[in-house]
Amino acid sequence: MSTAMLDIRLLDVRAHDRSTFSCGVPALDDYLKQHASRHGGQGISATYIAAAIGSSLPASIIGYYTLSACTLDLAALQATLPPSPAKKLPRFPDIPATLLGRLAVAIGHQKKGYGEVLLMDALKRSKRVAKEVSSYALVVDAKDAVVAAFYAHYGFVSLSPQHLFLPFANVP
User: Fold this and answer.
1) Long-range Cβ pairs for the range 24-31 (8 Å, 24+)
2) Dihedral angle over CA of 40, 46, 51, 57, nearest 10
């Protein structure tokens, strides 16, 4: 299946079959199956799922990601950014940001570009919302060095080995 044939939208428990989703990471599988719907209802995070366009309902999930609000420590940002952009930040202890809390692709769909498609959708969606509800950057907490390298490939800057961010000013 081509990545162009994806429909990415908010999780709808009636329309999306979460029961068979497996990405190979139990914590990510369990989150989608056990917590995503409740967290969405509580306003804690929004879960966006990717399914094949025109798939029968309930649609099988190819991958998903979550977004929520967070903050970045100003001191950590200033230590990471070049002097000019760091100087322009307000002198608050924390800077508003958006957290890409989880991103997972089902085992049968891995290594086919779906992770990149999901990341690009998250960046586009987050940047659009950041214009209405101010947010400086997209933040990720990578589970390991391989995942951190994935995000670094797309321009994310490391605050620590597995805590990375990408300022929305750097997102086309």
Assistant:
1) 24/107, 24/110, 25/104, 25/143, 28/102, 28/104, 29/104, 31/66, 31/102
2) 20
Q: Rounded to whole angstroms, how far apart are CA atoms 168 and 122?
A: 12
* Residues in a beta bridge with 46: 67
Render pLDDT for 35-68 as a digit per residue (tens, 0 to 9): 999 999 999 999 999 988 776 656 789 999 999 9
Q: Residue 44 region, left (φ>0) first, then alpha (ψ -120 to 50), else beta?
A: alpha
pLDDT digits (tens, 9 = 90+) for 122-165: 999 999 999 899 998 999 999 999 999 999 999 999 888 889 99
Sign of the CA dihedral running 128, 131, 137, 142: negative
* CA nearest neighbour of 31 among 43, 14, 153, 23: 23
Please tell me the pTM assigned to this model.
Answer: 0.89
Tokens of 89: 């930040």
d(CA 28, CA 33): 9
- Which ranges constitute the DSSP H helices of 107-161? 114-130, 145-153
